[in-house]
Amino acid sequence: MVPQNQYEIKPLTLQDRKMLRRQFLFLIAFGVFVGAIFFFIFKFVLPTGEMGYIPVFVFTAFALIFGAFIFYFFWGTYIDLKKGIKQCYTGIVNDKRVNKHTSSSARHNRSGGSHAYGSSRKSTQTYYYISIENIEHSVSYKQYSQAKLGDKVSIEISPKKKEVLDFKVLEKNNDTTTLSHHTISKKRYERVEKSLPMTIKEIELVKKMFFKTIRKDLMYLIPIIILLFVLWKGIFIFLIPLIIAFIYYSFKLLIKYNRYAKFNRNGYLKTVTKVQVIDKLKATSNRNSTKFQIETNHGNINVSEHIYNQVQASQVINLHKASFIDLLFEVSFDYGN
């Protein structure tokens, strides 16, 4: 629960009440529609007794779930209207997050009295969040795209349902950013690149990171080779996907090793690129690990969580990449501009 001293309480405006009442009416209409469907099922389909008792229990469970779902949202909207207040947060955007939730369901085919698995269907829902003074709020994509890191924004939400009633960008991040007693001008920086020799410590770090990616590719390639060896005398058409995968990962490994050989022959050089941070994004998912991305004035880069937490909007940073293999291994901060 968010402490009350972090937001301001205001009465609902006429526009806010209209928005909540529209949801009220939508829930009532949806409830009537769902109720009519279940009434038809229980009145005209299930009483025939041809399907036994199991469908009755299944549809009863579905009816209770839908009823609880509709009642929960109905009650939340009712409480928000009854209280007649809203929570108003004003502050600086210090983080952004996109969460993707993927669910899959298998469709079954019935033929000749037997059950068979049909094609599976995947659905992905995307949710957007912004953090204002370290308090995360769920917003729409339009609201999410309006705010950048460091912008001063205002958001008004209902206390029970956390429905966004109003969202405004009060002030764009155009002032100077002060970090560790260094003032960094927020002008647009031209891309500056320079090639430098790497230290022994940096070489060891790059080797460790590079061979980690190689091991990851081998984890895909080795099972494919084993399957090809086992199934080689089988039907050729079933081997085609395995052959394609084998060629793809083999070429991928060869290209990586060729680039690493160039990196080795040319004396372990690195490219240092000076860029300016515009925004940053945290991407979460129920299927994949969390990814951290920084948007700069010269493109987006994926970084570690440690670097992500250090970098702030409008900061000037140096990207250290190993030459030829294009591997980002370090981000340093430029305080001299």
Summarize this structure as a short list of keywords or feature phrases:
twelve-stranded mixed sheet; 337 residues; alpha+beta; two-stranded antiparallel ribbon
Q: Could you please describe the fold and organization of this structure?
A:
- This protein is α+β, with helices and mostly antiparallel strands and about 325 residues long.
- The protein has two domains: about 5-170, no CATH class; about 190-335, no CATH class.
- Helices cover about 40% and strands about 35% of the residues.
- The strands form two sheets. Strands 1, 2, 3, 4, 5, 6, 9, 10, 11, 12, 13 and 14 form a twelve-stranded mixed sheet that branches.
- Strand 7 (about 175-180) and strand 8 (about 180-185) form a beta hairpin.
- The radius of gyration is 28 Å and the shape is flat.
- Mean pLDDT is about 80; it is low at about 110-115 and about 175-185.
- Keywords: Membrane, Transmembrane, Transmembrane helix.
- It comes from Meridianimaribacter flavus.
- This is DUF3592 domain-containing protein.
